[in-house]
């Protein structure tokens, strides 16, 4: 095992061959997905903002589209049904359409479209980033330990948590008061509301209290309540419920390339990179695969580029593998045996050696990615 104290501090560098094995010819591209995600979210925000400013009647992320053909926020649609205590065809149709999208794309909205993670990153301190790296590292260690003990992967299930309680509260309050109460504090809606007020202030010189109040509420929610996405967001809770049925674009590991499968090495780079504390290798992480936001951080972090997010995952044979493989506990045991054999005489494998970038950049998210 790597030095526990170093790992808790999130600062242990790779040493010798272990460090070199975590480097790949693709390492310089590991931030590519984060960049693309940022560009996509910015493009969506720009389209919505231009639509609001002109105005084109295309709506916001809460209700985007034209006239009756609008993709209403699923939470907003549910709240409409609860608030009206009546059959609302448009809300039901919008809800069905969103459910279909989530069944196909899972929680991709959270990492590719929602502006809140990007707003949060504006307020993220180095200390906070270090704390998150340590949290991911501890979760990755736990997942690796479960793999070593030959535990079975978590079955598709929903991790019911505080977000679901907030979701229940949002629907209950809507039913009681007759209007979508949560929408008043939803950071996604408030982000666009603040933009509208700012635009009107610039264009028509119309100052309102909302110009200060809306950004203040957003900052309170995403900066002070730093765990908004993981512990509070009822929209994320709703998406995770529907995501139980998602089988597409799931992280899938190529056994021939994976260091655990091919060489029996205790690699945890993919789990260590996951912001949702999932173990993409075998779904043995602290949170289940239903929470996957399709961010591709695991694919970027894998030293051998063994992870893809295909539309349709191929089954893996005899691996310690991913949920898509339907791997059995027995196969996990065999993978563990291969690992133990390999620990007695590791090969250098197909990973580029001689790179010292990890130590030079002090990249904490990758430190201790390969357990000794
Ligand atoms: S499993 Fe991979 S794609 Fe899914 S949330 Fe974690 S890092 Fe992102
Ligand atoms: S899939 Fe995960 S465990 Fe396998 S080599 Fe890549 S990062 Fe390591």
What do these coordinates show?
The chain is mainly α and 372 residues long. A hairpin with a 2-residue loop joins strand 2 and strand 3 (69-72). A 3-stranded antiparallel sheet has the order 1-2-3. The protein has a two-stranded antiparallel sheet with strand order 4-6. Helices cover 52% and strands 5% of the residues. The relative contact order is 0.18. Mean pLDDT is 74; it is low at 1-28 and 317-366. Residues 253, 258-260, 267, 269-270, 281, 302-304, 306-307 line the site of one iron/sulfur cluster (SF4).
The total number of structural domains is 2
Average of pLDDT? 74
The percent of residues in helical segments reads 40-55%
Unreliable stretches (pLDDT < 50, length at least 5) are 1-28, 317-366
Characterize the overall form.
globular
The DSSP helix count reads 18
Spatial ordering of strands, largest sheet: 1-2-3
Summarize the structure.
With about 375 residues, the protein is mainly alpha-helical. It has helices at about 5-10, 15-20, 30-55, 75-85, 90-105, 110, 115-120, 125-150, 160-175, 185-205, 210-225, 230, 235-240, 260-265, 270-275, 295-300, 330-345, 355-360, and strands at about 60, 65, 70, 250-255, 265, 305-310, 370.
Q: Any key phrases for this structure?
A:
three-stranded antiparallel β-sheet; 18 helices; 2 domains; two-stranded antiparallel sheet; 372 residues; mainly alpha; 52% helix; disordered N terminus; 7 strands; single chain; 5% strand; binds iron/sulfur cluster
């Amino acid at each position: 095992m790597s030095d526990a104290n170093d790992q808790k501090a999130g600062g242990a560098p790779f040493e010798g061959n272990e460090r070199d094995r975590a480097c790949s010819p693709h390492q310089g591209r590991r931030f590519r997905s984060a960049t693309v995600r940022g560009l996509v979210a910015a493009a969506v925000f720009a389209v919505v903002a231009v639509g609001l400013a002109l105005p084109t009647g295309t709506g916001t992320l809460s209700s985007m589209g034209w006239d009756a053909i609008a993709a209403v926020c699923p939470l907003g649609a549910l709240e409409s049904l609860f608030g009206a205590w009546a059959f609302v065809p448009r809300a039901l149709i919008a809800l069905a359409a969103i459910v279909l999208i989530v069944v196909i794309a899972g929680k991709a909205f959270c990492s590719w479209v929602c502006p809140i993670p990007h707003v949060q990153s504006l307020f993220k301190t180095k200390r906070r980033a270090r704390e998150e790296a340590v949290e991911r590292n501890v979760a990755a260690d736990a997942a690796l330990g479960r793999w070593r003990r030959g535990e079975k992967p978590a079955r598709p299930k929903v991790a019911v948590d505080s977000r679901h309680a907030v979701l229940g509260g949002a629907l209950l309050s809507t039913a009681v008061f007759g209007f979508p109460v949560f929408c008043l504090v939803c950071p996604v809606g408030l982000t666009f509301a603040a933009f509208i007020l700012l635009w009107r202030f610039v264009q028509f010189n119309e100052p309102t209290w909302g110009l200060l109040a809306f950004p203040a509420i957003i900052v309170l929610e995403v900066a002070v309540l730093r765990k908004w996405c993981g512990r509070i967001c009822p929209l994320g809770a709703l998406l995770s419920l529907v995501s139980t049925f998602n089988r597409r674009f799931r992280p899938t590991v190529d056994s021939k390339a994976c260091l655990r499968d091919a060489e029996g090495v205790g690699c945890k780079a993919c789990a260590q990179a996951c912001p949702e504390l999932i173990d993409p290798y075998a779904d043995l992480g602290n949170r289940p695969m239903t929470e996957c936001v399709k961010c591709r951080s695991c694919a970027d972090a894998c030293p051998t580029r063994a992870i893809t997010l295909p539309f349709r995952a191929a089954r893996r044979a005899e691996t310690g593998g991913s949920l898509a493989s339907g791997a059995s506990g027995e196969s996990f045991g065999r993978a563990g045996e291969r690992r133990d054999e390999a620990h007695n005489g590791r090969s250098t494998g197909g990973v580029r050696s001689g790179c010292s970038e990890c130590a030079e950049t002090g990249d904490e998210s990758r430190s201790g990615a390969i357990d000794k």
